[in-house]
Amino acid sequence: MSTETRTPASEAPRPGKPKKSVFTPGRLIAAAVVLVVLILMFFSTKILTGKEATEAVPGTFSPESYAQEKFSSEIAPDIIKRATELAVVQKAIAADPDAAADKYGVVSGSSPAVYSVKFTGTAGEPEANGQLPVKVEGVPSDIKVLLQMGPAINGTAVRDATGKVEFSQFKNQIDYQNVGAELNKQVKDQVLSKVDAASLAGKKIAAVGAFSLINPSAYIITPVQIGEAP
């Protein structure tokens, strides 16, 4: 007689239960929505550089914007209004530099006086350093009169000539220096870009500008107005 062993029904092997997929319709839809949002954000994002980036941050000072706003509206007109004939200023400096500075110049701290001047004279050939020599009647021949014509404009005479742009108005020395450089750029963009220095050689010209009295034998003037004399 054979003995048959039966496995209880409760112990019989159960068929494997299929795993639930993580990619359910709901999750697929959510992922698609996120992807669309990211794409829209990418195409609507504007990357700011230079001036835009500076202006986009509230409270951030922009020397470029300052110079663009102030040069033609305030600084250049003020230099033109203050300008004294160069020959008159030269004689005053020769007689008494301190008195000349008080009467015709602007002095900031211990810096040399800055003068706003106007003159008519005969232009020479532009020099390699971008300066245009001018013979001005009434100014001794041993004093060079040189107009800065670029591309490099040195110094801060335009910034300092009016006495209205002071260090105390700015957050730090860097901003103050950058304003001077940006004002010089405005001279190039708004004044010198309209003038061909080489074409002025031998002609009578009229100019208005500012210079710092660093070298008493050479007045290096940054022009805010220049052209052929009538």
UniProtKB/TrEMBL annotation:
Q: Where are the transmembrane segments?
A: 22-43
> Which keywords, in A-to-Z order, does the entry hold?
Lipoprotein, Membrane, Transmembrane, Transmembrane helix
Q: Where is this region: Disordered?
A: 1-20
Name the Pfam families for this protein: DUF2291
Listed SUPFAM superfamilies: TM0957-like
Q: What is this protein called?
A: Lipoprotein
Which species?
Arthrobacter mangrovi
Native organism taxonomy: Bacteria, Bacillati, Actinomycetota, Actinomycetes, Micrococcales
